[in-house]
Amino acid sequence: MQKNYVIGFPRIGEKRELKKVLEKYWSKQTDFNEVKFVAESLRKRHWNYQKEAKIDFISSNDFSYYDNMLDTSILLGAIPKRFENLKDEELYFAMARGNDSCVAMEMTKWFNTNYHYIVPEISKDTKFKLNSKKVIEEYQEALELGINTKINLIGAITYLGLSKSVDNSDIFLHINNVVEIYKELLLEISKLNDEVIVQFDEPLFVKDLDSKVLSLIKPVYDALANVAPNIKIVVTTYFEHSNEATKILVNTPIWALGLDFIHGSKNFETLEVIKNSNKVLIAGVIDGRNIWKSNFQDKVELLEKISKVVNKENIIVGTSCSLLHVPFTLNYEEKLDKEIKSWLAFANEKLKELSLVSKQFFDFKLNLEELSTIKRNIEDNSQRKISSKIHNIKIQDELKNLKIFERVDKFQDRIKVQREFFNYDFLTTTTIGSFPQTPEIRENRKQYKANAISKEQYEAEIKKYIDDCVAFQDEIGLDVIVHGEPERNDMVEYFGELMDGFAFTQNAWVQSYGSRCVKPPLIYGDVNRENPMTVEWIKYAQSKTKKVMKGMLTGPVTILNWSFVRDDLPRSEVARQIALAINKEVDDLQNAGIKMIQVDEAAFKEGYPLRIENIKAYENWAVDNFKLSVSSVKANTQIHTHMCYSEFNDIIKTIEAMDADVISIETARSGNRLLKIFKEVAYKQEIGPGIYDIHSPRIPSVQEMVNQIEALIEVLPKEQLWINPDCGLKTRKWPEVKQSLKNMVEAVKIVKEKNY
C-alpha cells in the first residue's frame, strides 16, 4: 500500500555540487561531460535518500540544470527565434544566461517564494515541437536503480499562464497546441511501464483566475487523462487553496489531486466534492516552505480531520509543495546551537517526518527506533514552547507600551526642510548602497570569522576599502555618497547576526535561480537589537568626506521575507519586533549626524499573498511596520527606500502610504512604463528611477544615459527625480562600476547644461 508522496526534491546537492560544477563549466574550466556526470550522481543519490526514507512516490524530472520552467520550454520546443541556431547545452544556457549575441530570457519570482524561474516567451507565431529526451531518460535512469518514479511536469495552463506574450497576442490561444504536445509525450511515457504516474504541477490554480482560464481546466484534463489507460494523472497545487479549480478537476478523469493544507487551509472547503468524486487526495501536511520540525501529533490530528470527510483509503500523505524551497540536510550543521537544531527539519529530515506521520496515520506497526523518534519529537516540540531562548519579556513590554507609530511631520513640510538642509536642487546623483564585494573583502571577512586575523587587521582592511570607495565617489562628483558596505556579507544576514532571535547555519543553502543559492537566517525567537549595528562604520565614512553620507539599513519586511520565520507567532508580529529594532538604529544614526538614511524594502512585494482577499491585511501590517521603523526621525532626516523586482501598478497606493521621502526603483529594463504609474496617481514624494541595469556587465554610454534621463523628465518634473543605478553594485566588478558611474555623472551634467 503506497501512502506517502513527495511533490519534488532539491537538486543543487547537499554541498552545492551542482552549483560548483556549473560555474566551473561556465568559466570554461571543464566540459559539459563533467556537469552531466555530477548531475547523474546527484539524481542517483537523491532518489536513494528518498527510497531509504521509505517514500512511496518519488519524482523524476524534478531535477534541472537551471530551472524547470526553462526545461518545459525545451520540452515543448518553445524556443525564441534569437536562439534558433543554437543546440543542446549551448541553447539551454543561452536562454537562461544569454551569450555574446543573444539577450537572456526574463527571470522572475515563482509565486511568493524566493525561487526565480525563466519566463517563457510566446508569440502568435510560436511553434511547438516535442523534445522528450530528458523526461524519458531520467525515468529510465531511476528504473535501472530499481525505483519506479512518478514523472513531474509543469501543467499546460500554468506554463502558458506564467509566460510572457512578446507581441501582445493571447497566450492561451496556444493551449490546444501545448495539450497536443503533452498528449504525444504521454503516449511515449505509456510505453515505459505497465503503469506510470504523471504529476502535472498547476500552482497557477491557487490564484484568483478569471472564468476564461477556469474554463480551460476541464477540456485540458479530459484530453490528457484519456491518452492511455496505464497512465494515472495527478494534478498538484500549492502555496494556497485552489477551490475553484478543484471543483472542476473532480469532474475530469484524473486519478488524484495534491492540495496544500499548510498554506491553503481553505482547501478543507472542497473535501466533500473530492469525497463524492472518489478521487485520491494527496494531503500536503509536511511543510515544504519552512524549516521547523513537524509536531507529529498535530499532523496526525490534521489528517484525521481530513479523513472525517474523505475516505481514509483515498488519502495519501504528502509534502505541501516541493522540498526545493528548504535546505538539504541538517547533517553538516556542527556549529548550530544544539537546542535550536533540535527544533529544525530540512529536506532530508522531512522525508523521515513524512514517512513516520503516514505510518502513524495509517496505524502501521512501528519499530523501537520509530517509537523513540516519535517520543523525541514530542519532547523537542514541548521544549521549544517554553525555551528561554525564544521569549524576551523586555521587548514584548516595549512593543505593548509604544506610543509613536509613524513620523510626526507631513511630507510636504518635511521636504522643504530637507531641501534646504541638504542644499540640493534636481537630478541629484547617488547609488543604491553597495559597491563590489571583491575577493579580497570576502577573504578578509572569512579570515576574521575563522579567528585567523585580529579584529584590528580586519577593521584596517574595511577602512581601507571605505577610504577608496569614498574617494572614488568624491572624485567623480556623486552628490550623495555611500560607504560601500564592505563589512556586510548579505543585506539580511549582516543585521540578523547583530540582533537577538536570529540563528545562522553553515550549509543551509537554498536555490534561488540557476547556480545562485542563498542561506536565509532563521528567526527562532523574539528579536532585539541591543547595540548599534552600523553607526560606527557610517560615522567613519562620513569623516572622510564633506558630502552627504547616506546610512544604509535593511527594512523589517525585507528581513522577514528573506528569512525562515518562526511559526509560533503571526508574521506581522515578528515584523513588528524587527521594525522596533530598526527604529532604534535609525535614531542612533540621526543622533550621530547621519541625516540621510535608506531603509531598503527590496522584498516588500515578495510577501504578497496569492489571493486578493488576503492582500489588504498584508499591506496594512507591512506598511505599518515600515512606518514604525522610521517613526523616530526628525523633519530634517531624509528617509530613502529601495524596491526591486516589482510591478508597481497594483501597489502604487501602498508605496505612497509608506511615506518615504525618496524611493529608488528598478526601471532600466522597463523604460518609462513604471514611471508613468507614479505620474498617473500624482505621486508626491521624490523618485530615483534606475537609469542603467546593474544585472548586466555592459557599460552604458554617456549619450545612452542622457537619452534615458531626458526620457524621465518627459514623465516627471526634474525636481522630483534622483539619478542612480537600478540596484546595488555588490555583484559587479570595479572596472565596469567605475566607468558606468562616471558616465552617469557626466550624463547628468550634460542634461543640466541644456537649460532644464
TrEMBL record:
Binding positions for L-homocysteine? Answer: I432, G433, S434, E485, D600
One GO term of the biological process aspect: methylation
Q: What is its EC number?
A: 2.1.1.14
Domain Cobalamin-independent methionine synthase MetE C-terminal/archaeal positions: 427-749
Instruction: Report domain Cobalamin-independent methionine synthase MetE N-terminal positions.
Output: 4-310
Q: Which GO terms describe its molecular function?
A: 5-methyltetrahydropteroyltriglutamate-homocysteine S-methyltransferase activity; zinc ion binding
Name the coenzymes or cofactors required. Answer: Zn(2+)
Q: Which reaction does it catalyse?
A: 5-methyltetrahydropteroyltri-L-glutamate + L-homocysteine = tetrahydropteroyltri-L-glutamate + L-methionine
- Write out the catalytic residues in the record: H695
Residues holding Zn(2+): H642, C644, E666, C727
- Family classification: Belongs to the vitamin-B12 independent methionine synthase family.
Q: Which NCBIfam families match?
A: met_syn_B12ind, PRK05222.1
**Name of the protein in question:** 5-methyltetrahydropteroyltriglutamate--homocysteine methyltransferase
Query: What lineage, starting at the top, does this entry show?
Result: Bacteria, Pseudomonadati, Campylobacterota, Epsilonproteobacteria, Campylobacterales
